[in-house]
Design goal:
The chain is an alpha+beta fold. It contains nine helices and 15 strands. The protein is 26% helix and 21% strand. The longest helix is centred in the last third of the chain and has 15 residues. The structure holds 2-oxoglutaric acid and fe (ii) ion.
Length: 325
């Protein structure tokens, strides 16, 4: 596969600082509609999760990708999933409800020159379904098992959830909507593809099968792979801060995906960089939530789960046989 240079690489190093300063000068929001109007008010039900048939394929750990030291003190590179294809997490009803909610949220989407060109951010704030799903113990447990560590929703609301909408360029010299080559600001990331593959052409989820620091977009022989998605509701789980990835441009149709970020509450480590967040929202709008994030990260795991209103998920819960669902 030698066409990966068609996707640009998102600003690295000092270029990211520059994009943070540019974001600081842009208007706070170019949303077309306020969030509350977009809510389908549909509640989440744990019955939307499949109780059988969860299939985690194409599994690679951080060790498989060539990481010899762990980014988390509570886990080894062998235990941490770097990438996995997830099939059978939701049943038909669940997928229908998620699609409905995310279609609705498109009215609040905005375009920018950031990593993903067209998206609705903080979906948990404007969708009852997504907000309740993110604090469902059954859902968090399923994602924790895929990740290899217990998880909570990421404490930084604007990084916690977003819906991405990709379309092909409308006119010949239009810029295609893409997901540039990037690593995420967060580590535990579930990318749920809600469009059926028959609804679009192009839009492949691509990733670099090696440590992020070895990624070089100009090197045509490096190990770039596609994680194929064959039905609506399938997902690609990634250790987002360490796996270089992107979404190829579409040539037809529309591709919609719900991207959810989590945090391991047994570790105070969080990789979110101020400049990564600020390159999205601007420096001033990032300052307060940044200090709040530092306070949230310092809370003990039990307290983080208590604030969600659920019993703590522990490392012992991760073995599938220990917890009946
Ligand atoms: O849309 C996708 O499948 C992934 C997009 C992505 O990488 C992101 O939102 O960070
Ligand atoms: Fe990403």
């Amino acid at each position: 596969m030698k066409r990966h240079s068609e996707l640009p690489v998102f600003a690295q190093g000092s270029a990211r600082l520059w994009s943070a300063l540019q974001a600081s000068l842009s208007p706070a929001s170019r949303c077309k509609h306020p969030g509350a109007l977009l809510d389908t008010l549909q509640p989440w039900r744990d019955s939307y999760l499949r109780t059988d048939g969860l299939c985690v394929g194409n599994h690679r750990s951080l060790a498989d990708l060539g990481y010899s030291t762990s980014p988390l003190t509570v886990s080894t590179p062998e235990q941490l999933t770097a990438l996995a294809h997830v099939d059978g997490l939701f049943n038909e009803q669940g997928i229908t409800q998620l699609r409905r909610a995310c279609y609705q949220l498109e009215a609040g989407s905005s375009t920018s020159a950031w990593i993903i060109s067209n998206r609705t951010r903080a979906a948990t704030e404007s969708s009852t379904l997504i907000r309740e799903m993110m604090s469902s113990r059954a859902f968090l447990l399923a994602v924790s098992r895929i990740a290899g560590v217990p998880l909570v929703p990421h404490p930084f609301v604007r990084a916690r959830s977003q819906v991405n909408y990709f379309y092909p360029p409308e006119a010949q010299d239009d810029r295609a909507q893409i997901g540039m080559w990037h690593t995420d600001g967060t580590s535990f990331v579930l990318n749920i593809v809600l469009s059926d593959p028959s609804e679009y052409d192009g839009g492949a989820f691509v990733y670099f099968e090696g440590p992020a620091e070895r990624f070089d977009v100009n090197e045509p022989d490096q190990c770039v792979r596609t994680c194929p998605v064959s039905a609506s509701g399938e997902a690609v789980y990634i250790y987002g801060s360490r796996v270089f990835h992107g979404v190829r441009p579409l040539t037809r149709g529309r591709r919609m995906s719900l991207v959810l970020s989590f945090h391991c509450p047994y570790s105070q480590q969080d990789v979110n960089k101020f400049w990564h967040l600020a390159s999205d929202d601007g420096v001033l709008r990032t300052l307060r939530p940044w200090f709040q994030l530092q306070r949230d990260l310092a809370r003990p795991a039990d307290e983080q789960y208590r604030r969600l209103g659920i019993e703590p998920i522990t490392f012992a819960d991760l073995a599938p046989s220990t917890v009946p669902r």
